[in-house]
Q: What sequence folds into this?
């Protein structure tokens, strides 16, 4: 329907809410003032009162001859008789800041704060209950009385907002004049400096902003994924988060405090078979550090008597070594808190990490597949094996370059901390335990390579005992894996010699390093993508927080109706529009895509219009997201200014 027509439409299921078509020269439009056009449009006061006090005192609207009956809109069901004054007791949209005061308005003689009201207007058919529809202030009432600005609406179907032509488009009915309106522009008078800096970035744009409209295309099936990280990563991270908050099982007595660590939780269930760590039993605990509140893993070696305190200096050397394939060592101390003399070494916590043994060697219970219980294969693929070899070799290289030796490369001490990500764990413990038995570093480093060879053989054979029958184990590798892999294994378990260095191993690995590099970079890209979705998500959370600050606030500035009046009323109705819609049977519409779409359009300050309906369905407002955004900024600004 062409702009300028005076027509009405009603919300299908509501009690006749009437909205008239908007003028083509919206107040927020920068289109040159159309005073002349205004004189062609009927003054609303004629409709309401049958006369206009300002007819000869500057009112720019058309006034039919006094004796003539005021003509109603052509297709209006409303008789042309004057409406009662109470009929305009509609919720009032009074943004504190003009949306665009530079835009010429149809009523230039009206103060800016009042002009603003004509950009969003309401129409009513009966008096709304005061609890639902706040009374306008006296000045607002006066303005409504005098200007009758409540009838300025676009004639859009508010229930299909996506069907509307975009402002500024070539074929737009406003002649494309909206194209010059920057929807991201901050409203003049907006004082970002007074706002919480936490929110400031979303409000002031110092450079060309992203085109958020691109994000708001309604794509119901896929939209949710764009605002949340993918399910598998989310689940994994949530499980980790749960793990670090797990409480100690009842019946286990542990020290309350241990050298700045508290809330100890054993990492292994109490009844598992215990293996010795050299000559000692050791136990792992997760504990919270009192200084930084983070969790760490403490390896306690039971009944260990530290003969030489200098033994702990090796831990200092380890704590300086940071490598992506090594579980970082933090500190070591002795303690009597467990009622014995224990050595405790503190490591980074990698919640839900598995050892290589648990991941690839330990038998897994059969699982239902295709309706039948089937054994689960533990076989490590060649690709994964190469990845493990490269990562562990890289860690060994870093250790050797730091003048240390790993001394413990074992399937039960290497952790898988993510997808195919491995880290050497328990570093440094052997150095302390064996401090009294010094050994030549180069020999220890050669041993590291031999231990790596044994580890690969165990993984290929899925058995910790594979080294007991070396010939058979190597044959298995020859049958199941490439010749290159077999060569690497044979090199690693060969006799020590000057040729046998970690550098030599990298020569053998060759171009597989590049494959590993590709994978690593792809993984970074994937994670960056996930991060982006969370970034968008965070933007929306900030918006929701603003709603939370504003909506239902019991009082502000001694005004108990603050959150129910003025700009805040729009915010409340918008909140209802986003969250409290019901379908034709009155069932709640719980549609995340609708919520995300609305919030994004709000954040982008879209010029698209929506109809907000009061809870009693007696009044409605047609507003653009941009106008709602201004209301939110204004209300939030009031709160942050104190
Ligand atoms: N730094 C760490 N962060 C998180 N989990 C860890 C860490 N170190 C070890 N774990 C986990 O603790 C569990 C026990 O580890 P480990 O087998 O080394 O302990 P242990 O007491 O030496 O056991 P065992 O006596 O069976 O060798 C494993 O599931 C392992 O994944």
A:
């Amino acid at each position: 329907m062409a702009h300028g027509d005076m027509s009405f439409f009603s919300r299908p299921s509501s009690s006749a809410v009437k909205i008239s078509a908007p003028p083509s020269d919206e107040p927020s439009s920068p289109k040159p003032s159309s005073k002349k056009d205004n004189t062609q449009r009927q003054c609303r006061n004629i409709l309401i009162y049958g006369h206009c006090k300002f007819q000869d005192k500057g009112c720019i609207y058309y006034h039919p001859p006094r004796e003539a009956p005021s003509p109603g809109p052509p297709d209006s069901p409303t008789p042309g008789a004057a409406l009662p004054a109470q009929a305009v007791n509609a919720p009032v949209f009074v943004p504190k800041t003009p949306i665009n005061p530079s835009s010429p308005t149809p009523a230039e003689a009206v103060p800016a704060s009042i002009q603003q009201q004509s950009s969003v207007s309401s129409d009513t058919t009966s008096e709304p209950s005061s609890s639902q529809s706040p009374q306008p202030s006296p000045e607002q009432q006066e303005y409504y009385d005098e200007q009758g600005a409540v009838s300025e609406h676009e004639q859009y179907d508010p229930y299909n907002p996506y069907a509307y032509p975009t402002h500024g488009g070539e074929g737009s009915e406003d002649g494309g004049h909206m194209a010059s309106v920057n929807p991201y522009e901050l409203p003049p008078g907006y004082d970002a400096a007074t706002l919480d800096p936490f929110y400031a970035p979303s409000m002031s744009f110092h450079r060309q902003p992203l085109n958020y409209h691109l994000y708001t295309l309604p794509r119901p099936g896929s939209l949710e994924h764009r605002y949340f990280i993918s399910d598998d990563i989310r689940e994994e991270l949530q499980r980790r988060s749960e793990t670090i908050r797990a409480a100690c099982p009842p019946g286990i007595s542990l020290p309350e405090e241990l050298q700045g660590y508290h809330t100890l939780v054993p990492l292994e269930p109490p009844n598992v078979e215990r293996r010795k760590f050299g000559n000692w039993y050791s136990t792992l605990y997760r504990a919270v550090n009192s200084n930084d509140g983070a969790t760490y893993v403490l390896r306690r070696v039971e009944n260990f008597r530290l003969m030489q305190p200098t033994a702990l200096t090796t831990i200092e050397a380890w704590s300086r070594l940071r490598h992506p394939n090594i579980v970082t060592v933090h500190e070591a101390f002795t303690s009597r808190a467990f009622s014995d003399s224990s050595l405790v070494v503190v490591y980074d916590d990698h919640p839900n990490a598995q050892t290589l043994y648990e991941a690839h060697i330990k038998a897994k219970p059969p699982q239902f597949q295709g309706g039948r219980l089937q054994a689960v294969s533990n076989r490590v693929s060649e690709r994964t094996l190469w990845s493990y070899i490269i990562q562990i070799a890289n860690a060994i290289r870093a250790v050797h370059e730091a003048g240390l030796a790993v001394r413990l490369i074992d399937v039960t001490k290497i952790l898988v901390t993510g997808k195919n990500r491995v880290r050497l764990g328990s570093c440094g413990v052997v150095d302390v335990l064996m401090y009294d038995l010094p050994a030549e570093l180069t020999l220890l480093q050669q041993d590291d390579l031999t231990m790596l060879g044994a580890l690969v053989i165990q993984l290929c054979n899925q058995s910790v005992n594979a080294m007991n029958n070396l010939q058979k184990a190597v044959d298995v590798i020859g049958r199941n894996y490439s010749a290159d892999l077999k060569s690497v294994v044979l090199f690693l378990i060969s006799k020590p010699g000057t040729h046998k260095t970690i550098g030599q191993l990298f020569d053998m690995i060759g171009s597989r390093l590049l494959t590993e590099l590709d994978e690593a970079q792809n993984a970074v890209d994937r994670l960056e993508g996930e991060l982006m979705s969370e970034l968008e998500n965070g933007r929306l959370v900030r918006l929701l927080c603003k709603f939370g600050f504003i909506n239902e606030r019991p009082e502000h500035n001694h005004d108990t109706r603050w959150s129910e009046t003025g700009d805040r009323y729009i915010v409340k109705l918008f909140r209802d529009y986003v969250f409290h819609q019901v379908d034709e049977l009155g069932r709640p519409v719980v549609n995340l895509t609708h919520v995300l779409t609305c919030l994004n359009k709000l954040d982008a300050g879209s010029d698209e219009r929506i109809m907000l309906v009061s809870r009693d369905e007696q009044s409605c407002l047609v507003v653009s997201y941009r106008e709602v955004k201004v209301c939110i900024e204004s209300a939030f600004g009031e709160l942050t200014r104190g």
The chain has two domains: 35-215+535-640, 247-364+374-510. The mean pLDDT is 73. The CA atoms of residues 165 and 464 lie 69 Å apart.
